[in-house]
Recover the amino acids of this structure.
């Protein structure tokens, strides 16, 4: 939906790093990027942006975008809720390796909040409604995939598939707290084979020594056979705790885990810890980090975002999955919670506005052929079919939020100073280059 709003809102306490030195440049379209380089590097190497722009070959996602596109924003929230699909996407690298979806496994003691996390993040359940969730008794397998039904209905499978093969495709398994996977009746391989990440949820408001001991047993058991699994510990329900107590709890859990693993000769196991709550953005932030680790092209995405930021006067850029509000990549400057929160809230604003004022964009192929009676109307329809949603919000503290729809599921949200948006043509151009590069990166991955 071509959406362009310009409004003012207040935002206090905005901490951002100082602006890059102007003048900012258009991203040189013949610059090269190292797709395998570390995320910190913005060195230019093996992928030419010019090549991204000029290679004709296969039908480009951009064409697909034009021809089979329905703006994400025009999909109603209720549709999103009813759909079993979320939009974190299909990530070809992972899927291709095994032909099976990588899994995120949620484990932890009973009532620690596993089902609530899954419902809030992937099904948009309001946090307060999780109070009525019943205890899980069987393993819940939740496919999070992105070949949405309405794409097939629209008959643009080939084009859209290209577009959608760029995202992640995985399953979230909710493992009931009362089940013991070490029981010989459980198929260990079925549970842990193909696992991308094990998310262990600990209720920080409850006694956690026993769950912690179960976590240690689990890590020790899976390390022998599946050392590549990412182990993520969510120190959950921290909304009721003071800042000091939260950090103390996290520190204690880390220390005990480290000691236990060292005692068992597992000094090098990488365990990540996140303080989370479904009542604020922390759960989305934590999931963003978990999912980013499963995207092999993360370094490339970060490099592209770094180049975009440094050439356009952007302070912080996030590539968001709109439905889940998980960011799949950001530039390599540190993420501060306030920036993330305001960008995440911005998505809600845009989705709400689009639900009211959005409309179905006709795919290019369905735009009626020009007639002598109404040529201008057809032209307008064609133009609308090719426009991405975009929006700018000016904040009272001099910062600007810039949103640009990248494709059906992804949106780029940038925070910049007011003087950077004065060169909006330049920013738009650079974002377009970034968008094309992104599509090519995913095509190459496919
Ligand atoms: N305060 C607070 N409560 C939470 C949070 N997350 C979940 N809860 C509450 O914790 C309770 C248990 O949540 P569930 O999601 O059912 O827990 P579970 O781990 O799936 O439980 P089992 O299905 O028995 O394994 C619910 O009443 C939730 O509302 C949180 O971040 N903060």
């Amino acid at each position: 939906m071509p959406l362009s709003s310009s409004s003012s809102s207040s935002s206090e306490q905005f901490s951002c790093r100082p602006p890059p030195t102007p003048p900012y440049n258009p991203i040189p379209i013949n610059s090269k990027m190292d797709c395998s380089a570390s995320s910190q590097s913005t060195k230019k190497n093996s992928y030419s942006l010019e090549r991204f722009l000029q290679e004709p070959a296969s039908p480009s996602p951009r064409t697909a975008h034009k021809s089979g596109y329905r703006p994400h924003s025009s999909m109603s929230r209720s549709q999103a809720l009813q759909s079993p699909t979320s939009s974190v996407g299909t990530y070809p690298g992972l899927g291709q390796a095994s032909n099976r979806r990588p899994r995120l496994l949620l484990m932890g003691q009973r009532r620690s909040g596993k089902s609530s996390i899954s419902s809030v993040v992937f099904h948009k359940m309001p946090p307060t409604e999780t109070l009525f969730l019943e205890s899980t008794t069987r393993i819940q397998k939740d496919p999070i995939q992105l070949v949405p039904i309405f794409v097939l209905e629209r008959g643009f499978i080939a084009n859209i598939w290209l577009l959608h093969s760029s995202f992640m495709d995985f399953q979230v398994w909710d493992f009931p707290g009362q089940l013991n996977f070490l029981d010989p009746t459980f198929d260990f391989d079925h549970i842990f084979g193909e696992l991308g990440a094990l998310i262990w949820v600990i209720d920080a408001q409850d006694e956690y020594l026993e769950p912690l001991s179960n976590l240690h047993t689990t890590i020790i058991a899976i390390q022998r056979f599946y050392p590549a699994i990412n182990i993520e510990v969510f120190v959950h329900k921290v909304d009721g705790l003071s800042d000091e107590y939260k950090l103390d709890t996290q520190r204690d859990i880390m220390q005990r885990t480290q000691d236990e693993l060292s005692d068992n000769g597992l000094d090098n196991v990488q365990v990540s810890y996140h303080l989370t709550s479904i009542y604020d953005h922390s759960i989305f932030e934590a999931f963003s980090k978990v999912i980013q680790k499963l995207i092999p092209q993360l370094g490339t995405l970060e490099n592209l975002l770094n180049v975009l930021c440094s050439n356009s006067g952007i302070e912080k850029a996030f590539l968001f999955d709109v439905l889940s509000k998980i960011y799949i990549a950001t530039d390599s400057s540190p993420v501060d919670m306030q920036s993330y929160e305001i960008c995440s809230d911005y998505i809600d604003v845009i989705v709400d506005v689009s639900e009211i004022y959005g409309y179905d964009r006709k795919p290019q192929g369905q735009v009626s052929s020009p007639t002598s009676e109404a040529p201008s109307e057809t032209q307008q329809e064609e133009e609308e079919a090719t426009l991405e949603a975009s929006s700018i919000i000016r904040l009272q503290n001099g910062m600007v939020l810039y949103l640009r729809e990248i494709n059906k599921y992804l949106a780029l949200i940038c925070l910049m100073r007011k003087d950077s948006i004065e060169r909006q043509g330049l920013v738009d151009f650079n974002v377009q280059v970034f968008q094309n590069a992104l599509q090519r990166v995913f095509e190459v991955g496919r």
Summary: The chain has two domains: 6-69+297-365+380-445, 92-139+175-292. Residues 108, 110-116, 130-131, 133, 135-136, 176-177, 236-237, 239-240, 277-279 surround guanosine-5'-triphosphate (CB under 6 Å). Residues 1-22, 29-99, 145-166 have pLDDT under 50 and may be disordered.
